[in-house]
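Hey, quick one: can you model this chain's 3D structure?
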Amino acid sequence: MKVLNRIRTFAAIAAGLGALSAASAWAADLKVGFITSLSGPVSSLGIPYDKGMKAAQAYKSEVGGRKVQVIALDDASDPSTAARNARKLIEEDKVDVIIGTAGAPGSLAIAGVARETKTPLISIANADLPGEEGAWMVTLPQPAPLMMGAMVEKMKQSGVKTVAYIGYSDAWGDLVYDALMKSAPAAGIKVVSNERYARADSSVAGQVLKIVALRPDAVITGASGTPGALPYLALQERGYKGKIYGMHSLINPDFIRVGGASVEGLLAPTGPVVVAEQLPDANPMKKIAMDFRAAFQKANGAPPTDTFSAYSFDAWLIYLDAAQRALASKAEPGTPQFRLALRDAIVSTKELVGTHSVYNFKPTDRYGSDDRSRVVVRLDKGQWKLVP
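Sure thing. Here's the predicted structure for all 388 residues.
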């Protein structure tokens, strides 16, 4: 009898351990891979993205009773490193989604890995891949044509007839220039230059000399962060007195600090979160934008002063919403089935209110923003002011 009782006891313990193991597997943490640029020339954007992710985790850290684990890596502003980081996160850490990175070239590099491994990518840089190439990604920053439309409208209202362009010699520079060329001529505005520079360049004197010689009514740039201040500094040095415009990629405290007086009066499009307290109460994004600010303050000990951190926060909101729906499919995190369910949930997101936009994605469209996602701001004594 004693032997029989011992056998029964061991069997009960084994059954209990098996049940516990099964329960642990069922309640496995969800894993998110986060890649940003904490060092290198894109770090003036990458660091705010990181702070935004910390705010997101302070806001909410579980889905359906399951904790969400974030594994973060620095890509040092290098697209090759971004791709290697993505592969490590997917193959070794078994993440179900990648959120990243700070620059468009890096996000495009990650997109290739995401497509190969069938892992969803929520890009927080403005990156676009058509068709099947981008089938596993969505992009949060507002598309360049949408934001450029607001700038061209302001140019036309101000009587601008000629505009010079200077931007990065990479994917973002191309996106902005293409958007300008599609909208400016229709508004009766002639684009007189297409000057380019690298993100790591320390001078754009030669390019700006060519621009000043053309005497354009206005100059608009396709740049971002700290290096985005270079053209405005050079224009000021050459005594340029025309109007200056930028894109939403410039809404960053380091840009203001480096640009100083040369960027005063700059007009740029941006997401509503930048001027949340100036928005009417009826704006659907005002409440969540203020919630973001509170979470950012809690996580980082200071209020947000940029637009980029809010993209990380919005990526988190989209992920949480999609993960909730993916879990309903009964697929387990860490499996190909769950990653597919998560991708399908992300690209079918409808009317999700974020800080920058009310997001609506389609399987065939990388972007989820519409006209509600843009406002125009003017830099006035170092502060962004809403332009009616």
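One thing worth noting: The domain at 144-270 is CATH 3.40.50.2300 (Rossmann fold).
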